Amino acid sequence: MTMVSTGSTSDNDGSTNERTLLVANRGEIARRVIRTARDLGWRTVVLHTDLDAYAPHVEEADAAVRVESYLDVDEVVAAARDAGAGYVHPGYGFLSERAPFARALAEAGISLVGPSAQVMDAMGRKDAAREIAVAAEVPVVPAYSLDDDPETFAYPVLVKAAAGGGGKGMRVVRSAADFAAAADAARREAASSFGDDTLLVEKYVESGRHIEVQVIADAHGHVVHLFERDCSTQRRHQKVLEEAPAPTISAEQRQRVTEAAVALAAEVGYTNAGTVEFLLDDATGEAYFLEMNTRLQVEHPVTEEVVRIRGEGVDLVALQLAVAEGAELGFAQDDVTLEGHAIEARVYAEDSFGGFLPQAGLASYVAWPTDLPGVRVDHALRTGQEVSTAYDPMLGKVIAWGADREQARHRLVDALDATVVTGLTTNTGFLRTLLAGAEFRDATIDTAWLDRNEVPAPEPDTARVLAAAALDDTVASATDGGALLPGSARGPWQRDGWRMSADPAPALIELDRLVEVAASRGTVDGRSCRVLSSAREPGRPLRLEVELDGERHRGAVRRDGAVVEVVHQGQRFTFERPDAFADSAADVGDGTLTAPMPGTVLSVGAEDGQRVAEGDALVTMEAMKMELSLKAPFDGTVTAVDVVAGAQVKLGDRLVVVEPEEA
């Protein structure tokens, strides 16, 4: 374990400093906690593994400690003790809801910024929390015992991990025949994510809304709620968009869930910030208790943006630190009000239009929309940073506030339009498309909507026009808002020659196909085009705004050899020149299974010479806590197995080859 100073000039002798805070996390939440702690005059210390040695949270803290793992309780507690930290903020994920961690800190004389280990034991597990809710007369979802015969269940049911959240270890099961396989998969994922494979089986509500209530409690018996959030826009129980306040609940439903949340927290003796989650059944209007998250939530910024205490804004981390120091809340429930609406979008390193597969690689350029009105960005990704599959794929959060929901929605769409990441595919375009759609606009998306519906992928035609316009010197120089301007320079991407008289010949820009740029006619790819502005800075993509067939479009264009990247409306497109010298005979055929994402091979269910049937699982992979099974594409014989369990593979690596049966 190595400790280095990153900003503080004071020496540390290992003694406890009451105003030193160890942030036992990484990424955007570590930066978020550091920001508030610094504003309050705290000294901050962070952890980092070798992968995170140069991460933003390391540079922003006063000191940093190298650890082998963020999940090693003994190592993290030792780091806090050696850093002289009087307090530890766990963020979310990692050790944030582990009672053994809270207990080990208490034994070391260090305060956790969160509830006690006893409360974590009681509420951190879904099964124990369910029993407490029943005792407190809070409605819970009907459940089944794992000892019961699955044939007796009323399907569909939800199998879920008792020890965790975030959609990990969850499977919807629609028939008894599928139950065993789903339970096995959920159990594996739960053990991998939480170190505990205990499962619950509950009724699955086909159409419902995910409502959660933010509570804050001090050690003096005061518990208040900070209203509710709606997190219904989720895919496979992973939240995608969150908003506050909830747009569809009635005043009576709001009162019911907020009062139940406060009563539950008071019943268990809760202290610090927590979230009580409910499932609102659209069919009956009933609200069922789901679980209590004994930590700060990823989506806490939307609450901060809309809640006012005696007319002033709220900083939940500041409240957490004050409660941890023993202060009283100093306000009552009647002092808490709402103002406006806020929506949060989680930006992930994933290809949402390519099977939602995790992505990894170098972010060659990153621009967040930090200067737009009403927009807040919590992130930990910057230009030149390597994104690996070792951790959760979330790169940052973009949050927009508005006087009403529609203003917040429009502001968030604009913010995602202005978000640019090159070198790495993100879900920003997916989020933008979802936000701009009628379903989110009208608040008709329930918890299963994204599992039933496909969000249409953006078409590449406009991005191709932007790329051609940016790469043609005559267009890229047109910055006065006029029509396309003729020019004399010819760049290396133009294959057209020149002529002695009349208008200049159209330029042919070579992308994935030839694109005609006719400056004299004011067209690109046959579409009317006016360049409104263009800006090029060294080392950065060219920023371009055009009027295309009467509509305004903005994009960022970057060229790297034969590949051109365009980010348009948040979506990253790549256009690559066809290789005229490529050997088309090298095609390996449909029987080759390649890695659809970088990650770890969990198991290999194929051997050389083995006969397989279509749909047989041959390789199981995991990346960023997402498990994927690769199956035989047809009946045939395995002719090559190139991986073993535990192997790290890159995107596109060959794994298994299946040769089809003779006709």
Count of DSSP strands: 42
Give the assembly state of these chains.
single chain
Which whole number gives the mean pLDDT? 89
Helical/strand content category: alpha+beta
Number of helices: 16
As a percent range, the share of strand residues is 25-35%
Helix content: 10-25%
Overall shape: globular
Radius of gyration: 27 Å
Main pleated sheet: 8 strands, antiparallel
Distance between the termini: 62 Å
Low-confidence stretches: 7-12, 478-501, 580-588
Which strand order does the major sheet show?
A: 15-14-11-12-13-18-25-23
Question: What report would you give on this structure?
Answer:
The protein is an alpha+beta fold and 663 residues long. The chain is built from 16 helices and 42 strands. The strands form ten sheets. Strands 15-14-11-12-13-18-25-23 form an eight-stranded antiparallel beta sheet, with helices on both faces. Strands 27-28-29-30-31-32-33-34 form an eight-stranded antiparallel beta sheet. The protein has a six-stranded mixed beta sheet with strand order 1-4-3-2-5-6, sandwiched between helices. A hairpin with a 2-residue loop joins strand 29 and strand 30 (527-535). The longest helix has 19 residues, at 176-194. The chain is globular. The termini are far apart. Residues 7-12, 478-501 and 580-588 have low confidence and may be disordered.
